[in-house]
Amino acid sequence: MTLSAYVGLAPPGDKGSWQMESKGYQFWTQSDQKGNFSIKNIRPGNYNLYAYVPGIIGDYKYDNIITVQPGSNITLDVLVYEPPRNGPTLWEIGIPDRTAAEFYVPDPYPNLTNTLFDSSPKNKFRQYGLWERYADFYPNEDLSYTIGVNDYRKDWFYAQVTRKIGDGSYIATTWQVNFELKDRPITGDYTLQLALAAASFSELQVRFNDGEARIPHFTTRLIGRDNAIARHGIHGLYWFYSINVSSFWLRQGSNTIFLTQSRATDAFQGIMYDYIRLEGPPQISL
Q1: Which UniProt keywords are given for this protein, alphabetically ordered (predicted)?
Q2: Average pLDDT in the 212-219 region?
Q3: Which has fewest Cβ within 10 Å: 1, 43, 125, 197?
C-alpha cells in the first residue's frame, strides 16, 4: 500500500526548493492511500510539481513544467519517486517526518510554564525557554549517543543549540554518535543520510573519528533563518544532505561521528534534526 503523499504546485524559481519560493501562489493537496490526487481551482500559470511523503526522506520534483490554462484539465501519467538510498541501513536515528517531535523535549522551568499548553508531546515543545535546558542536562560535556544503547526518544535532545557559559557568552556544541562496525569497512563509499527539521543561522560540521580535524569531512556552511527554536516550534524549513563517507574514515570496532554546530554568538543559533541514517556500500550484505 502506498503511503499518502503531500503534492503541490509551486511557481518555477531559482531558490532550489518550493519551501523558499514566495514569488507566487502555491496549491497543495494530500493524495489518497493509493497515491491518487487532484488539485483544483489553480490560478493560470506555469508550475513545478512537488511531493513528499511522511516517513520517507527527500522531495520529489516532476521533470516538466506544468502549464495551467483557464478551464484546463490536466492528467498526468504515473509518477514514481525513488527515495535517496545508496546501500543497506546500518543504523538510524529518529523518524523521517520533517519534525523533531519524536526526540526528547524537556520539561519547562516551573516559573516559565504556560498553563495554556498541556504537557503532552503534541504541545510540550511550545513552552518557553526549553533551549536553555540543554545546559542543565549537559553543563560540561555535550550529548553522546550510542547506537544500540540509547533511545532517541529519551536521549536525543530536541535541538542542538549553543551553550551559555559563565561570562554570558556562548560556545559551539559537538554531539557524538557512537557505533560499532563488527567487520573491517568494505572499500567504497558509505552514505550518511542527514535530514534537518530546522536551522537558524547555523553551520553543521560532520567529522568521522577525528573530532579535532581542522577541516571537517562535510559542512552545510551557513544555513537557516527560520528561527523555529526561538519561536517554540518543532520544525522549520527542511534540509536534506546525502553525504558520501569514505571507508577510509571508518574502522573496524568503535566509531564516532562528531556533529558540530559551529556558529555560536547567541542562544538561538542551532538546528533540529529530523532523521539520520548510515548506509553501507551497495555491495555490503547484512
Answers
A1: Lyase, Signal
A2: 97
A3: 1
Of the candidates 197, 218, 214, 191, the one whose C-alpha atom is nearest the C-alpha of residue 206 is 218
DSSP H helices, the chain, are: 133-137, 152-155
How does residue 13 score in pLDDT terms, banded at 50, 70 and 90? Answer: confident
Over pLDDT 70: what percentage of the chain? 96
Residue among 245, 248, 247, 249 at smallest CA distance from 209: 249
Distance (Å) of CA 29 to CA 47, 174, 203: 15, 39, 33
Q: Cα 5 from chain centroid?
A: 18
Higher-pLDDT residue of 116 and 266 is: 266
Q: Are residues 49 and 15 in contact, defined by beta-carbon separation less than 8 angstroms?
A: no
HSE-up of 154 (CA within 13 Å, CB side)?
4
Q: pLDDT tens across 56-86, in order?
A: 999 999 999 999 999 999 999 999 999 999 9
What sign does the CA torsion over 107, 229, 214, 280 have?
A: positive
For the chain, list the domains and their CATH numbers: 6-68 (no CATH), 89-279 (2.60.120.260)
Contact indicator for 120, 141 with CB cutoff of 8 Å? no
Q: For residue 98, give the 3-state DSSP assignment.
A: coil
Beta bridge partners of 61: 50
For the cut 90, the answer to whether the pLDDT of residue 253 exceeds it is yes
Confidence band, pLDDT 50/70/90 cuts, at residue 1: very low
145, 179 Cβ separation under 8 angstroms: no
